[in-house]
Write a structure and sequence with these properties.
The chain is of the alpha+beta class and 364 residues long. The protein is built from ten helices and twelve strands. The chain has three domains: 47 residues; 161 residues, no CATH class; 135 residues, no CATH class.
């Protein structure tokens, strides 16, 4: 009897181990599958039932949306004199899905006079496009260049009362549109927020507001840097080299380059806004962090211009891309780029592209 019990126990332990091994991949990857399944469902609702999703999630009443929109319009001396049509909207400048109440101001013939998005979370105007201003600008007798553009832009920024930690980055003319744009970035103790920004546009003849967009999602955070750049780069490289193989792995030092910069990021919004990587699901979004934002990229040994890719001219980008593409194909389609975010104070791995954080931490 005792011997039978021992045999049964061994069999049960073996089965438990087998079941555990079978379930392990689901335990590791399950939360991420749920996240993206949830995200797909949200995308489906956005595509086919936008008003339904909007009704479920938006805690902003129509009356409050209209009140806040009119308050904004008064600040910039615009009065449409009638109630808008209200529709579900989404501020595309925000990472992922950012629902808003869209207030549409139209002419009787259906032509657009203006559009405003009031954020369902922020309850403030996050986007404004003044289409009617183009007609007034075209009719203006003032010659182009007759305005102090910088002064006009800063005057509107003051009227709107943009946050004090927004700093003007540059002023540029929008090609073929008759609009000058001022771009503001948010800073804390000298460090840029990755996503937080404001864009204000004015018509080149009238100086009236043409466009406004605001992304203000970050929180205050520590800006102490305890992790050095070379330490962050080494941590990222250790993970990256676990994902490449063969000759590419052997020659990785000469085939890949790496860049690191300090930015205040949202750990759960790691990539470009239009790529829809907002974390949608039951997990609480983490607060802002100052992080080393690291990019590892395939060059095939080609020495690129000694400046960040986003500062290259169109011709330089095109030449670099063609060289990289040829070498990338020559080397059997190796991993072309890899992005990592590492907390600058604690060294915590906040994000690793393509792989769940739990697995990435095991690869460090």
């Amino acid at each position: 009897m005792i011997e039978w019990c021992r045999v049964q126990m061994k069999i049960n332990v073996k089965k438990i181990i087998q079941v555990g091994l079978l379930l392990l991949p689901f335990l590791l990857v399950g939360p991420y599958l749920f996240r993206y399944t949830f995200n797909f469902g949200n995308m489906f609702l956005h595509a086919f039932f936008p008003n339904k999703l909007y009704e479920l999630d938006c805690r902003l009443s129509n009356d409050e949306a209209i009140l806040n929109a009119n308050t904004f319009l008064r600040k910039v001396n615009i009065d449409f004199n009638f109630e808008p049509v209200i529709k579900a909207g989404s501020n595309l400048d925000y990472p992922g899905s950012r629902i808003a109440k869209g207030l549409i101001f139209e002419y009787p013939d259906g032509g657009m006079r203006g559009r405003i998005y009031v954020g369902c979370d922020s309850h403030e105007v996050e986007y404004f496009n003044y289409f009617e201003g183009r007609r007034q600008n075209d009719k203006s007798s003032r010659s182009e260049g007759g305005l102090n553009i910088r002064q006009s832009l800063l005057s509107i920024a003051e009227k709107i009362q943009i946050p004090s930690d927004m700093v003007i980055d540059r002023i540029e003319k929008e090609k073929g549109e008759g609009i000058w744009n001022a771009y503001f970035i948010r800073k804390r103790n000298g460090y840029n927020y990755q996503f937080d920004k404001i864009k204000i546009g004015v018509w080149d003849k009238t100086g009236e507001i043409a466009f406004y967009s605001k992304v203000y999602m970050g929180t205050e955070c520590s800006t102490e840097v305890k992790i050095k750049e070379h330490e962050a780069l080494q941590s990222a490289w250790n993970i990256f080299t676990k994902l490449i193989f063969g000759e590419v792995y052997k020659q990785a030092d000469s085939l890949y380059g790496a860049r690191a910069k300090l930015l205040i990021i949202q750990p759960d919004h790691p990539r470009h806004p239009t790529e829809g990587d907002k974390l949608i699901g039951p997990t609480t979004q983490r607060s802002s962090r100052l992080a080393w934002v690291i990019s590892i990229y395939f060059t095939g040994g080609v020495i690129l211009p000694d400046k960040p890719y986003d500062e290259l001219s169109y011709e330089e980008k095109n030449e670099a891309t063609i060289k990289e593409w040829k070498l990338w194909r020559q080397w059997g389609n190796p991993l072309r780029s890899f992005h990592v975010r590492i907390d600058a104070e604690t060294g915590e791995l906040l994000y690793a592209e393509h792989i769940p954080l739990l697995i990435a931490n095991l690869l460090k």
